[in-house]
What does this fold into?
Amino acid sequence: MSESTTSIGNHRKLQQSLVSSLRDIRHLATSLNSSPQTITPLQEMQQRLEEDVFRIAIVGEFKRGKSTLINALLGQEILPSDVLPCSATLNRVTYGLQPKVELRFKAKAEEDEGTVEHIEIDQLSAYVTKLTPESEKRASDIEEAIVYFPTKYCRDKADIIDTPGLNDDSAMTNVTLKVLPEVDACVLVILAQSPFSAYEADFLKQMLTHDLGRVLFVVNRMDEIRRPRDRKRIVDLVRSRITKAIEDRVAELHERDSDDYVQALQDIGAPKIFAISGGLALDAKLEDDAELLKESGFPVFEASLERFLTVERGLVRLTMAANVIQKATIDLERQLSITLGSLRMEEEHFQSSIEKTHKQLETLQGKLNVLIDGYSKSKKTLTEQVHQRIDRAEPLLLENIVDSIANFEVTAEEITDEKDEVLKRLQKIVEHQFKINGEKLSFLLGKDIQEGLGKDLDDLQTVSAEAQQIFINIQNSFTVDDSSLDGEVIVGTLALASRVNPFTTLVSGAFSGYKMAGFKGAAVGGLSGAAAGYGTLLAGAQLVSMLAMPVTLPVYICVWAATAFGAWYGGKWATSFFFGQNIINEFKEESTKNLMTTLKQAMPAYMDQIKKHTIEHIDELYQNLINSIEQNLGASITQTSQVLRDLQNQRLSEGLNRDQQIDENQRFLRQVHTIQQEVDHIQDILGTLRDNNEESV
It folds into this structure.
C-alpha cells in the first residue's frame, strides 16, 4: 500500500466526498418528501463527518521529550518544554485562525460546569506546567488547556493532546489514563537511554484495559546513541520488554498457553515501535532540512501514524457513512420506482399492487414485532444467567488475595520502622490482585453476554434476508413494460434493485463476526469508542464493541477495592504487635485476617453494584439492537407505506400531469444513480484499503 493512499490528506478527500454525497442525497430526499427516518440519519452522519477530527495523545514519563515530539509533529515550537517535569494538565492543540489558549477549569461541585478563561499563548507555561510553584498551583485547578493555533497539521490532520508525566505523581497518571479511551491513537514516548522502565510497563498493562492496539511506541533521542548496532540493540530490548509485559499481563487474566491466552495475544498483535529523535526532527522542520529530517527517523513514524489513523481507525467511520448513503439510495430508488410504475398503471392493476404491497409490509412489520418482543424474553434469560454468575463470583474475586499477602516481601525492620509505608505497599499489591480478579469476572460476563446474544442475532439475520426479498418483490409488483420510460433509468434501477440491503450486509458481516470481535473486546477490555461514537446509524460496529464489558466495570472494581482495603488499612495497629520472633508471620496473618473480614463484609453490596452495572450494559445493548432495527428495516417500511399513501392521494387529485411526473421522477432517479456510483467508487477504495490492511496484519 502506497504512503499516499493512506495519507490523512487523501482520507480527508474521501471524507469530503462522502459529506458531499450525504448533502446531495439528503437534499434529494427532502425534495421527495421522504420520511424523517430516511432524512435524519443522513443529517446526523453529515454533521458527524463535518465535525470529525482525529485525536492523538502523547504520553510517557517526564523528561522523555513529549512536548518536543509534539512540536516536531506540528513543525513549530508551540508547547513549552523544559528539562523539568513540565506538563501538569491535559494540553490539547487544535486548529484556530488566531493563536490563543482556552483554560477550562474543574467544576467546584457536581452541578457546576466549570469556568472558562482565555489567555495569550505566551502565558501558557504560567498555567499548565510545574516550572514554578505558582504555575503548579494554577494547573491543579485546570481540567484542560485548549491551544488554538493556525498550524497546518491540526487543520489537515489531527488534534494533539499533551499529557502529564506518568511517574510524576499518581494524580497526573490518572489524568492521562482518563483521556485514553477518547483518543484515536496513543504515542508512548520511551527514552533510548532508559528503555522501557517499570512505570512504562505498568502503564502498558493498564492500557490493556482500554485498547493496546491504539498504542504506538516511540524510542526517542536515538541521536544520542552513537553506534548503529547499539541503536538496534536498544530497539530490540524495548520490543522484548514490551512483549514480555503484554504476555505477563494477559497471563494474569488467562492461563498461560490456554486458548483464551493465545487468542488475546493474537488480537493484541505485535507492538509498533519507532526509533526517532524528536529534537532533530523539530530542528529539521524549522530549518527545512530534508536530510536532517530523514536522519531523525521521523518520516517513517509520521507515515505509520497517518496510516494507522486512516486505515485502522478512520476506515470504520468512512465505511459507516458510505453504508448510510447506500441505504438511503436504495430507499429512494424504491420510492421512485414504485412511483414511476404506478404512474403508468391502469387503475385496477394499481389497486391490486397497492393491496398486495400493504399485506407484504404488514407481514414484515409483524415479523419485526415478534423479533423485538422476543428480545424481552431473551434479555430476561440473559439477566438471570449473569446474576447467577455474579452470585457465584466471590471465590473468583478473592482468588490469590491470601497468596499475594503471603508472598509479600518485607523485613521485620520495615514493619517496625516504616509501618505506614509497608501498609501502602501491601495495599497496592492486593488492589492489583483484586483488579485482576475483577477483570476475569468481567471477561466471563462478556462471554456470557456474547453467547446469550447469538440466537437473537441469527434470528435478526434471517428476518433481514426475508425483508430484502420482500422489498424486491414490492418493486417488481410496480414494474411496467412502457416505452416511455427512460432506458438508462431502467438499467440503473435494475442494477440498484439487485444490491444487497445494507442492513442485511451489516447483519451478515458485523453481526456474524461478533464472536471473534466480541471475544477480543472481552479479552482485552473493550474496543475503542471510535466506532461506537457513530451510534445506531450503523449498529454493527457499536454492537460488537458493546459485547465487551464496559470500561466502567473494572474501573469500579478498582475503586471499590481501594475503599474496602482502606477500611482495613485505616484501623488501629497496636505497637506491641510488632515485637517478637515472628514479626513478619504475625504481620501477614493479621493483615490477611483483617483484610478478608473487610472484603467479605463488603461483598454483598459490591455484588449488587456489579449486577447494576452489568444489567445496565445488557439493557443498553438490546436497546441499541432495537434502535438499529427500527432505524433500518422499520424506516424502510415506514418510507414505503408513506409512498403508497401519497400515490393513492395523487390518484384522487384532479389534473395530474402524469407525463410531467414521469419526467421529474426519472430525473430524480438518475440523480440517485449518480450518487450511488460515486459512493460505489469510494467503497471500492475503502475495500482495497481494508483488504490490504488485513494482508499486512
